[in-house]
Amino acid sequence: MKELVEVIAKALVDNPDEVVVTESEREDEIVVELKVASSDMGKVIGKQGRIAKAIRSVVKAASSRAEKRVIVEIQ
User: Helix and strand tally (H, E) in the chain?
Assistant: First the structure.
């Protein structure tokens, strides 16, 4: 999941070098944290959160085989 989020985020932002994605695993869920430059935050979130919602939907579809819930946090 980490690689998927990283590829999507780097395609959206102006400063792809500042994209940092970390993945941590808990009992029944995987947390993917996405950090971007403050100037690129709007590009990752989108109007009314549409792009962030789309990223979460793609990750959810990709994680359907894993029996864990995946949470994408944008910081």
Answer: 3, 3
Domain 2-74 has CATH 3.20.20.30: no
Structure tokens at 6: 């990283």
Tokens, residue 47:
């109007």
What pTM does this model have? 0.90
How far is Cα 22 from Cα 34, in angstroms, rounded to an integer?
A: 7
Helical residues (DSSP H) of the chain, grouped into ranges: 2-12, 41-45, 50-62
Q: pLDDT per residue over 24-62, tens digit each?
A: 998 889 999 999 999 999 999 999 999 999 999 999 999
Pick from 66, 23, 72, 36: nearest CA to 52 = 72
- Domain positions in the chain are 2-74
